[in-house]
Amino acid sequence: MSSEARLRASKSGKRRWWLLIAIVVVATLPLLFQDSYWRANLIVCALNVILAIGLDFILGYAGQLNLGHSAFYGIGAYASTLLIIKLGVPFWIAFAAGMALSGAAGMALSLFAVRLRGHYLAIASLGFAVIVHQVLLNWISLTQGPLGIYAIKPPPDIAVPGPPILSFGNSANMFYLVAGFAFLFYVLLDQLVRSPIGEALAAIREDEVSAASFGINCTVWKVFAFGMGSALAGAAGAFYASFVGTLVPDAFIITESFTILAMVIVGGMGTLTGPVWGAILLTVLPELLRGIGDLRLVVYGAALTLVVLFVPGGMVQAARIVRARLACLPIASTRQ
Predict the structure, then answer these.
(1) Whole-angstrom Cα distance, residue 235 to residue 239?
(2) Which residues contact 326 (CB under 8 A, 6 or more apart)?
(3) Is the dihedral of CA 300, 321, 267, 281 positive or negative?
(4) What residues have CB less than 8 Å from 291, skipping those under 6 apart?
(5) Cα(first)–Cα(last) distance of the chain, in Å?
(6) CA 204 to chain centre
(7) Which DSSP state fits 59?
(8) Is the model's pTM score more than 0.85?
(9) Is 216 within 8 Å of 45 (Cβ atoms)?
(10) CA distance 109 to 265
(11) Cβ proximity of 203 and 210 under 8 Å
(12) Residues 318-330: pLDDT tens digits?
């Protein structure tokens, strides 16, 4: 085995161990947090992880600045809910349909704006988010407008003859469900970015003209990335509706897009692991600071500003810096 192959195998082994540790930690969280308030925050964390890694696939890997991620979040939530309530569609079929519709909307927007880059694409996606919010707000006969949709049921119990095995009305089970899908989506995107698709997206992100000159179909892969990330937002939306039990248009306002973007930036774009940590931090931090009242907004904003100014690579870059400095300590040198 060559040294390169051994190095690759070593990295793969370490990655598996970290994933195993993550699974064990996640599995124990509902046992550590019995309070319904913190269990609800755990579910929101898992939802935000799905949203953040989806946006990171669009922005961090394909280099497309999407400021309308909340629109696809809302499309998935409303589409799945309306299919269940209006047409009596089973939850999992409605879930898949909401995910597919969000993905299709993302692909359509990307295809329409395929020649736009940077600020122009950001403005187009922002405009799309405004349109979606206004449709949800004003199409009262379908969405109930600002009054919202209520009494949305959680996913159906998984049952066998006799009592149900899992009831997703239970917050712990709901967390395991959403976290399980977050893990599956993470693994899916991780495999994609390590495949030739990921190499093509990286080439497009760095220099689209050069990528095209090497025979990469930039349009196809940009549309694919946008659709994939949007589909994940739709999945998060479907879970959000079934978890909260109510839907109002203001849950999907533009500021939600900026919050998701902040999670990606603070965690570290183009890393997948970074947005996971960013989503956890920016979900938990506001709750931990709730005790200091409105001052928490100042602390929250200052923390974000410091990260962007001094560690532009986010938490992942900060971890690498700390690890490199620890490696230079005399103790580390002695062990080596």
Answers:
(1) 6
(2) 332
(3) negative
(4) none
(5) 24
(6) 22
(7) I
(8) yes
(9) no
(10) 23
(11) yes
(12) 888 877 777 776 6
